[in-house]
Amino acid sequence: MSQQVFDIDTVGFGADTLGNYFDFYVNNTFYLLAPEYYYSFYSIYLNRCLACYDGWVNGFHNKASGLVPQRALQSIATGLNNMLFAHGIDFSGDKADYNFATMWAKRSKFYNALKKGHKFAIAGGTSLLKLNRENKELYATAHRIDTFFADIDATGKVVSVKVYFDAVHNTNPNNQGKDHYGICEERYFNEEGKPCIRASVYKSSGNLQTSVQDRPKFDVQRIEWKKLPNNVRQYIKNHYPSIVLDEEQYLPFPNSLGCYLMRFTDDIPQIPNTPFGQPIGDILFTENFQFDQMKYFEKNEVDLARARALVPEEFWNKDDPNYENRAMNERFYQKISSINADNDKITPIQFLLRGGDIRTQMENIYKDMSFKLNVSASSIASFLSEGAGARTATEIISERTKSDTWIKGQINLNAPEINELLREVMYYYNHEPVEIILKAEDQSPQIERLKTNSDVFGAGNMSPERFVKNTYGNTLSKEEQEKEIAYLEKTKAQNDMQRQAMAKYWNK
To answer: Secondary structure of 222-251 in the HEC alphabet?
Structure first.
């Protein structure tokens, strides 16, 4: 066993792996390499969720019919990701440690890795942040859940992980392409309890199935270099000339593998025993299909609303050999058989374009999505805020508060793992630990005032007039103040009626 501390550039993982992650064949092989205990989770549940996110679900989308994916989930993920990282990141710690952490984050592009990791977490429920070393410098990379298998202990610590970056199959005619080989970076604790890394190749056989009962009988096993088929060895030599398979090396971290999870949610409600988060494709599975259908209906509406003219057969110039094939004829005119020549005439037709109705339905779908995500509708679809002027200031700020609550939840969920990563980084460079600060956590004074005054007002200890004055000061015009007071009085009256009704019910 080599005592050399792992250097990513000496092993051969690097820029030459780019472009392989989401190759169809590589991805298909990845699912075949899933451990027995994770097979149904990855191949059935996760595969379906990521298909929704990536934008093509077999059996639903159909190019021939025009039912194509709109990738709404990707757009929503981008919006949520930008909302969380809108104001960048910062650190807390002593001045010297703070300055070093700031410089390291800048030169290693740590901010970009965090953003990518969180977006991957939205897509797959969970992502992996991995510390690597090149030329004695540490940097972090983000990996989507369909590129790695991780074992997690009861405390949430990653105790082993395989990160796949390429795949190849046996092209021997006698094999018929049934054997698949995945090339991975493998991290684990050895028998001595020391964190180690090695480059490995794992083999599986068969074809990907989407149900447990149909899974082919095969074993996933690590294959040594000398036992690999010639074509597989040649592929590795050509594409990764510096790679050294099966050589165990120590990681430069005392008690961890340098691997940390980011999650979108704290669990998967229907699979509570897994250590992973819930993908957005699962949360918004139905709504995503509904949105694609509405866009399909919108396309059909536009097509049906085209102006046409019904032309009796006798009106056509049959002396023209190409009269039936002219583009204008096909687009604007529809030939019909004559019934009564005396009454025959050209009849223009045009259906009503119901674009407004369809847009309303799509907006309602976005509102349903925001409800399930517990964020404001305008945070995932900015066009839904265009009518904000018709709402009260309280309503607008309440929407912001809802999104801020979601942001705090994401920070509380992921900050501990990020801080563990930073702890390893600072230890490596002989610095004291620092902690991450996502500036999105900062609340505006107005929102803080709103929260405080809302509690007092809700308890009945503040008048609507006093609430408006204390919350907004002189930022509202007289007309806006009056509108706000009227809204609060109406809301208070409705709440009072509800409380009275509940009191009568319980006093029966």
So the answer is: ECCHHHCCHHHHHHHHHHCCCCCECCCEEC
